Amino acid sequence: MRISELYSMDIYADNGQYLGEVRDAIVDLERGEVSRLLMEEFRNMDRSESKKMLQNKSVLFKNVRNIGDVVLVAAQTPGQQQAESSEDVNQLMSRR
User: Fold this and answer.
1) CA-to-CA distance for 79 and 6, rounded, in angstroms?
2) What CA–CA distance (Å, rounded) separates 91 from 20?
3) CATH code of 66's domain
4) Cα–Cα distance between 2 and 24 in angstroms, integer?
5) Angle, to 10 degrees, between the axis of helix 47-56 and the axis of helix 78-95?
């Protein structure tokens, strides 16, 4: 599947919660894999805005369970999501 085929697909958590629509993706070129799916287009913004957007408007691609008519991701508790997201976001922000 091509990344471009994911654009405009709805994202749902496996608990049925609608999360948003795929608007952009972050690709880790060193690993050759998708890192995150974004529910907003990634554009030039200051560091704090970028960090907030990555934490609140994106999902880790490793949490994707299935891609079909929609993107299905694993639902996480807020504590799990915050810890995992903060670690990943800090790594992304250090590369920027």
Assistant:
1) 28
2) 24
3) 2.30.30.240
4) 13
5) 140
Q: Taking the mean position of all CA atoms in its chain, how far away is CA 13? A: 12
| Domain, as residue range, for 13 | 3-95
Instruction: Give me the number of domains the chain comprises.
Output: 1
Span 25-71, pLDDT tens digits: 999 999 999 999 999 998 888 888 888 888 889 999 999 999 999 99
What is the rounded distance in angstroms from the CA atom of residue 2 to the CA atom of residue 92? 22
Q: Which token pair is 61?
A: 């691609």
Place of tokens 């991701």: 73
Residue given tokens 């250090």 in the structure block: 94
